[in-house]
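R.M. (postdoc): so does anyone remember the format we settled on? I'll just put the structure tokens first.
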């Protein structure tokens, strides 16, 4: 199999050694004579996987007994609603920062359950920056934000200072750098970028959030019930949880500090070239550029036909997943944890060759 440089925005690249280990479990897991895919989620072997995955999340983020971790289904899209249900408080009011498509989706769901105040938005500039000036109303039950905007390539470099409980959709930069996770009452995110394959959604919730919401809650929305059932209220996405556990082991072995250093290096490599190369321009404000998703366009004045020429050159170099999201256009290089630096260097070589050929 020839090596592909995988810049997909998600589901996305995972460590090679994880694929190897995971493929063995599909054939036979733990010498049990059974594939992981045909095994009860209540079996001793799988319960151990779930427990290790939950424990690793806490260990990697340095969280103590005041936090719980769950692996549920429904993606971050259900997380928009689950977070709004569980974080609802006595005031019936919430605050949201609107930094892109996913933040808007979170706002839409929250409107079913609370009086939503959008306290800041970058929509007027097609979400090309992270708003910095805003006031969080003291009577908001919580503040919700999206730490990394996968589609628009912006990222919060510092988390909002809120005097109310803080909630974050961390789908596209979870475990990408060291953070102070104790700032949050709730973090959630789909596994399918930095943490594992599609299918599992991680929830990291402060214990005192559980049972606090005054809302009448459908059972599957209720994080307290999921915690009481040790993330096994219903059948969990076993394979996704297993592969996530393998990725979490890999993250632990490297450490978040080293992962963050690698992600900084990859991001500097691509952004330096976007800034140097006259054929391209970045779409995000420099100080808010995402380390995970670098979005860029052809420079002003260049024929749009050249988009296809550049993508064709990328294809020749075995680069995949570079086409930008339709709401931004151009190109998006997603550089999640498992993407090696040499893939970014290969992309930079193609950008240089493109400049030589068409510049
Ligand atoms: C930041 C962010 N939030 C939410 C979502 C939606 O996630 P899901 O497809 O898991 O529901 C995505 C998907 O890419 C995302 O990038």
């Amino acid at each position: 199999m020839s090596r592909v440089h995988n810049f997909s925005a998600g589901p996305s690249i995972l460590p090679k050694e994880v694929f190897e280990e995971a493929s063995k479990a599909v054939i036979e897991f733990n010498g049990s004579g059974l594939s992981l895919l045909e095994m009860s989620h209540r079996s001793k072997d799988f319960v151990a996987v779930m427990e290790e995955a939950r424990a690793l999340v806490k260990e990697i983020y340095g969280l103590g007994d005041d936090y719980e971790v769950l692996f549920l289904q429904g993606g971050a899209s259900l997380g928009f609603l689950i977070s709004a249900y569980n974080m609802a408080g006595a005031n019936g009011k919430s605050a949201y920062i609107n930094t892109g498509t996913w933040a808007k989706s979170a706002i839409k769901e929250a409107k079913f359950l609370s009086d939503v105040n959008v306290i800041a938005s970058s929509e007027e500039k097609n979400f090309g920056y992270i708003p910095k000036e805003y006031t969080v109303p003291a009577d908001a039950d919580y503040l919700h934000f999206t730490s990394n905007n996968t589609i628009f390539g912006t990222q919060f470099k510092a988390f909002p200072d809120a005097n109310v409980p803080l909630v974050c959709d961390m789908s596209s930069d979870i475990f990408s750098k060291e953070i102070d996770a104790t700032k949050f009452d709730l973090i959630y995110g789909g596994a399918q970028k930095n943490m594992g394959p599609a299918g599992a959604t991680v929830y990291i919730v402060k214990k005192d959030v559980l049972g606090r919401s005054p809302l009448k809650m459908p059972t599957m929305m209720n994080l307290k019930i999921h915690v009481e059932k040790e993330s096994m209220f219903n059948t969990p996405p076993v394979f996704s949880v297993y592969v996530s556990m393998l990725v979490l082991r890999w993250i632990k072995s490297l450490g978040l500090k080293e992962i963050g250093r690698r992600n900084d290096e990859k991001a500097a490599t691509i952004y330096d070239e976007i800034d140097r190369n006259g054929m391209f321009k970045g779409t995000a404000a420099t100080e808010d550029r995402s380390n995970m998703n670098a979005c860029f366009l052809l420079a002003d004045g260049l024929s749009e036909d050249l988009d296809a020429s550049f993508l064709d050159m990328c294809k020749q170099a075995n680069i995949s997943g570079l086409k930008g999201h339709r709401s931004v256009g151009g190109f998006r290089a997603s550089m999640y944890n498992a993407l090696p630096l040499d893939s970014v260097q290969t992309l930079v070589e193609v950008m240089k060759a493109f400049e030589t050929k068409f510049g």
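R.M.: ...and that's the designed sequence above, right after the tokens. Also worth knowing: The domain at 16-254 is CATH 3.40.640.10 (Aspartate Aminotransferase; domain 2). The chain is about 35% helix and 15% strand.
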